[in-house]
Amino acid sequence: MRVRPLRIEGAFEFTPERFPDSRGYFTSPFQEEAFAAAVGRPLFPVRQASHNLSRRPGVLRGIHYTATPPGGAKYVYCPRGKVIDFQVDLRVGSPTFGMSDSVVLDEAEGRSVYCPVGVGHGSVVLEADSMVVYLLSQVYVAANELAVSPLDPALALPLPPGLEPLMSERDAAALTLAESRERGMLPDYATCLELDRAPAFV
Q1: Domains annotated on the chain, with CATH
Q2: For 179, what's the count of Cα atoms within 13 Å in the CB-facing half-sphere?
Q3: Which pLDDT tens digit goes with each residue over 164-181?
């Protein structure tokens, strides 16, 4: 497993080895030993596993985050198709607040991304019928789920030219980073770190 820290403090990319043969291939997108060595603790207890399937290129999801508390962390990979995965540091007070990074997730490389509590997440689809899988530290509760606009110029996300974004009504109406901060909706950095290190996560 190759590990690469992302620009955002506490976020990582993981690339597993792939074992092809005449039948296809085998790979392990999550490996506890590699994760713990990078992050400094085991993966959070998985309280929900989810996936989405996007029918066409240009589907744009996010930037999603969970109200903190309770806060939510994610481990994400793409077993089918190809997406650009976005991570945005929404933790007010973080040394990397407001910074974004992106990773191409696809079936060919099998990369995964870890987003700690308070780091927003989203993706844009590059191939039809792409699937993204999430391991989540919290059960989905609609009232706790918030979004920052992925089209916010301040984030400068690397959206591919020529792709017409297809977004949900909620994401299309999402506030900018500055608006979310002004309204006190963004998570606090110290609180996020405390939740990341809480006994429920170890």
Answers
A1: 2-16+28-201 (2.60.120.10)
A2: 11
A3: 999 999 999 999 999 999
